[in-house]
Design goal:
single chain, mainly alpha
């Protein structure tokens, strides 16, 4: 089960955003604005635990829209994958240990194949 939506940004898309998310202006110009999609998204997540790679960043981005709509930030509990990985892999590591918290490193340890390339629908 997953939720997927394209929304039209509320400001001009910069070249870096297009490069990272692999969505062009033409891909989003006819998409609904975030306020139209947000109620469905909030219904979908409900009170579920949110798990992600640097998930606090994503939730902070969502909270810019959730707070004016609901008067609160997302109250969902969350698990930050990079922190969990760090604690399990490097928690007892000696000083000066080289630490790699990249998404690729986190997937490599349990032999999970990397996605071919990052896009807005495979965001971590």
């Amino acid at each position: 089960m997953h939720f997927e939506a394209v929304v039209r940004p509320d400001r001009e898309m910069g070249a870096e955003a297009i490069k990272i998310h692999r969505l062009r202006r033409s891909d989003v110009e006819s998409a609904p604005i975030v306020w139209k999609v947000l109620p469905s998204f909030l219904h979908f997540i409900g009170t579920r635990l949110l798990i992600g790679y640097y998930v606090d960043f994503d939730i902070a981005m969502l909270d810019k829209y959730v707070l004016p709509l609901l008067g609160i930030e997302l109250p969902n509990k969350r698990i930050e994958i990079s922190r969990l990985y760090y604690e399990r892999k490097y928690g007892d590591a000696p000083p000066n240990t080289s630490i790699d918290l990249s998404f690729a490193a986190i997937l490599r340890d349990p032999c999970i194949p990397l996605p071919e390339q990052h896009d807005a629908f495979d965001d971590g």
